[in-house]
Design goal:
CATH superfamily of the largest domain: Reverse transcriptase/Diguanylate cyclase domain
CATH class of the largest domain: Alpha Beta
Shape: elongated
Radius of gyration: 31 Å
Largest sheet: 5 strands, parallel
Helix content: 55-70%
Number of domains: 4
Strand order of the largest sheet: 2-1-3-4-5
Number of strands: 10
Distance between the termini: 39 Å
Structural class: alpha/beta
CATH topology of the largest domain: Alpha-Beta Plaits
């Protein structure tokens, strides 16, 4: 309902205006009847309305004075209609100077009033459309500028625009990833359910931080579907009167409130200016792998996980290299023995938690190097993701001996698959699977189990061949089929969405428009893509 305020010093006129038409039937609600301009002015200072109908001649403050003051002082931009018993053009001329919409004569003609209400409705709709279009353009520009900043390929305009939207000056900031901790709980969820989790994370973070521009989602290849990015900076903590640790603890509490699977924060290294945010973003991505070998926490700080004391640094390079060789050769007995020897040596040397993390990080990057040697086109971020996924196991101690053995054996298998180059024939099978079962909740993990291949490697070779992720490929197949059904059937759009695998019609609308550049309704109306 659009809100209306009636202003007239004659009670009978006010009562008459309230019943002359069915306001609610036209989509309007009378929220205030004021006896003079002063009463109306005081009400508008604390309340918003969409339409004001005010008499010209009133005590204390007349209609012309009312519109002049609210316009000049910025109190209200509501549509304004002057009401008078005098057909005096001078009144109308003065009112027009202050963006008066129209002029009504007493007694009020109901048909004329309805015409004005229809004009107001149409004007509001048009204003909303323009505002929405402007908001969409601004969102797209901000998204583009933020991506450029995080990827380190920005210019001065990008930096200035991001700073303006975030409300940040030259101050310390960091990029964080809010990620679902128990990824196994996501395996049985479809895309819509995972999207609901990400939406809930975004909403909770926005409410806590108070600035939606600080929340990054749907923007990067290396943000998973169940993750969002968050930018924090000194100004946020200062405004909340909390230090960084207290602020992030509060944020973590809020994010975990309604997420059963648990949420962790991966906090990239703090940088001294927004222009260096790409480094913090890269750090947060790398934390996915490091957290697999550290004690379980709610918040992982890059500084804590990666840095090691420069005093008494002990790198057990000989033991680590022995383990790396065993993994490369897929020698199970030797892998188990090398892990035992490594932990015995760490105990003998009295290595603390920081030194253990440093040794395991050395191992991780050497294993990445091994994979790249097998296939130079392998995406190192994908390997980090693989390591992160396979470094978790609720039944063993994180970073412990059994944990490392399981991971080392799994990685040895991963290297074998790289050597075999299983992409030939396998991807054709998976392509047929998608074409035949696109409406089902297909996931890369399920397909990897069915075809006995590591999910991370399958994702890599899929992206290499099709130049897109598995989810994007599945989406394109679904949208292609939806386009066919839009043109060849009279099915409702919601039914077509369900036919191709989307239970949420709004999400289908979003994906169809993203892929085709046009809404499903317009696609059907145009008989296909516009020429």
């Amino acid at each position: 309902m659009y809100k209306v305020m009636l202003v007239d010093d004659e009670p009978l006129i006010l009562r008459g205006m309230s019943v002359v038409i069915d306001w609610e039937d036209r989509g309007f609600e009378i929220v205030k009847s004021a006896a003079n301009g002063r009463e109306a002015y005081d009400f508008l200072k604390d309340n918003a309305v969409d339409l004001i109908i005010a008499d010209i001649k009133m005590p204390e403050m007349n209609g012309l004075e009312l519109i002049r003051r609210i316009r000049e002082e910025g109190v209200s931009d509501a549509y304004f209609v002057i009401l008078s018993g005098y057909n005096d053009f001078e009144y109308a001329r003065q009112a027009i100077r202050y963006s008066c919409m129209d002029y009504l004569l007493k007694p009020i003609d109901s048909d004329r009033l309805i015409e004005i209400l229809d004009q107001v409705t149409e004007s509001i709709h048009e204003k909303l459309k323009v505002a929405k279009a402007r908001e969409t353009i601004e969102d797209a520009y901000f998204r583009q500028s933020m991506i450029a900043l995080l990827c380190g390929r920005y210019d001065e305009d990008d930096e200035a625009y991001v700073k303006k939207e975030l409300g940040i000056g030259k101050e310390k900031c960091r990029f964080m990833i809010a990620s679902v901790d128990n990824t196994e709980s996501l395996e049985d969820m479809d895309d819509d359910e995972i999207k609901e989790i990400r939406d809930a994370l975004s909403l909770a973070a926005e409410e806590y931080i108070g600035n939606p521009s600080c929340i990054v989602r749907d923007a990067f290849d290396y943000l998973e579907d169940h993750e969002i990015g968050i930018v924090i900076y000194d100004g946020l903590m200062n405004a909340s009167h909390m230090n960084e640790s207290e602020y992030l603890d509060g944020l973590c509490d809020v994010l975990n409130k309604d997420i059963d699977a648990g949420v962790v924060l991966l906090a990239g290294k703090s940088v001294d200016d927004i222009s260096r945010l790409s480094r913090s973003y890269s750090n947060a991505c790398v934390l996915r792998s490091f957290r697999g070998f550290s004690n379980e926490k709610r918040i992982y700080y890059y500084e804590d996980e990666v840095s090691a004391s420069h005093n008494n640094v002990v790198l057990l390079k000989q033991n680590l290299d022995e383990l790396i060789t065993a993994i490369e050769q897929n020698d199970i007995t030797r892998i188990n023995g090398s892990v035992d020897a490594l932990y015995l040596e760490m105990e003998r040397a009295g290595i603390n938690t920081d030194m253990r993390s440093m040794n395991l990080n050395y191992l991780i990057f050497q294993l990445i190097h091994l994979a790249v040697e097998q296939d130079e086109t392998v995406d190192q971020e994908e390997i980090l993701h693989y390591i992160s996924e396979n470094a978790f196991d609720a039944t063993v101690t994180r970073g412990g001996r059994t944990h490392l053995k399981r991971f080392a054996l799994s990685y040895a298998e991963y290297l074998i698959q790289l050597r075999r180059n299983v992409s030939r024939g396998l991807l054709a099978e998976i392509e047929r699977e998608v074409r035949n079962n696109y409406a089902q909740n297909l996931t890369l993990r399920e397909l990897s189990r069915k075809y006995y291949v590591n999910p991370s490697y399958l994702g890599q070779i899929f992206k290499k061949k099709y130049d897109q992720s598995f989810k994007d490929y599945l989406c394109s197949v679904r949208i292609d089929e939806a386009a066919k059904q839009l043109l060849s059937t009279d099915e409702k759009i919601a039914n077509i969405a369900e036919n191709v695998g989307y239970r949420d019609p709004d999400y289908f609308l979003l994906k169809f428009t993203q892929v085709m550049g046009i809404s499903p309704a317009k696609y059907r109306k145009n008989g296909g893509m516009p020429t």
